[in-house]
Specification:
The protein is of the alpha/beta class and about 240 residues long. Helix 1 runs parallel beside helix 2 (about 80-90), helix 4 (about 115-125) packs across helix 5 (about 130-155) and helix 8 (about 180-195) packs across helix 9. About 50% of the residues lie in helices and about 20% in strands. Strand 2 and strand 3 form a beta hairpin. The protein is built from 10 helices and 5 strands. The chain has helices at about 50-65, 80-90, 100-105, 115-125, 130-155, 160, 170-175, 180-195, 200-215, 225-235; strands spanning about 5-20, 20-35, 40-45, 65-75, 95.
Length: about 240
């Protein structure tokens, strides 16, 4: 398998497995968009815990199985995962999922003020440029730091991995800055496991998910939305890394 990916997304669902005792385990999926604009499930991993070593194994496995390059990898804040991607694919831009950043930020906010805080966060990530976004972040901090200091600190701390999508035109930014595509896959998988008890083994769970994902992927018959515009931009931005035709 030889794949050059435009984007990669990774997210997790959870279920229970009887592994001596009944344990809650996470099932991680990686979804890639290849140079034809088509979505592909690149792998399934089951783990009870995660960390830098686990993520390094995952990314190394992707490379060993034929993934040649990743231009932009969108991840949802899994600890140690951005570093693992950069270790194996050092030229990859790691984009933190903006939706997850907003959700994490709103955890600090009372229900009555969430709409207002969310609107001010939206002004940051819907800016025209990274420079404008940083100005909006400064305004957010001036307004909200007294009540919600951890929000501004979190965005500042992760700023280098929040802003890569600003290098692309507005019509394709939504494809880059969110893991929503894989979240919809996770939702379909949760429906399958919702009314089931615990699985007898990891293998039983993997078989069920493999069959389910095969059915889900049959619906992916067209390139993603705005792919032609995205490909044009990729051709300009990554000319020296594109596979030869």
């Amino acid at each position: 398998m030889t794949i050059t990916l435009a984007w990669q997304r990774t997210a997790a669902a959870t279920t229970t497995v009887r592994d001596g005792a009944v344990r809650v385990k996470a099932v991680y999926l990686a979804l890639g968009i290849n140079m034809s604009g088509e979505k592909e499930i690149l792998g399934i991993w089951i783990a009870q815990s995660e960390g830098a070593k686990f993520w390094l194994q995952v990314v190394t496995e992707l490379r060993n199985r034929g993934v040649q390059d990743i231009f932009v990898a969108c991840v949802d804040g899994l600890k140690g995962f951005p570093e693992a991607i950069e270790a194996v694919f050092p030229q990859t831009s790691v984009q933190l999922c903006i939706v997850h950043m907003v959700r994490h930020s709103l955890n600090y906010v009372s229900w009555k003020r969430r709409a207002e805080v969310a609107a001010d966060l939206k002004r940051i990530y819907q800016s025209s440029t990274a420079e404008e976004a940083e100005l909006r972040l400064g305004e957010f901090e001036d307004k909200w730091d007294e009540d919600y200091l951890p929000i501004g600190q979190s965005w500042r701390r992760n700023w280098a991995r929040i802003t890569p999508f600003f290098d692309f035109p507005p019509e394709i930014r939504k494809v880059i800055y969110t893991t929503n595509a894989i979240e919809s896959v996770n939702m379909s998988l949760r429906k399958i496991t919702k009314n089931r008890g615990s699985f007898p083994s990891d293998e039983a769970l993997l078989k069920l998910f493999y069959l389910a994902l095969r059915n889900i992927s049959k619906k992916w018959t067209m390139p993603i939305r705005d792919w032609k515009a995205a490909l044009t931009r990729l051709t300009i931005s990554y000319a020296d890394r594109l596979p030869r035709q």
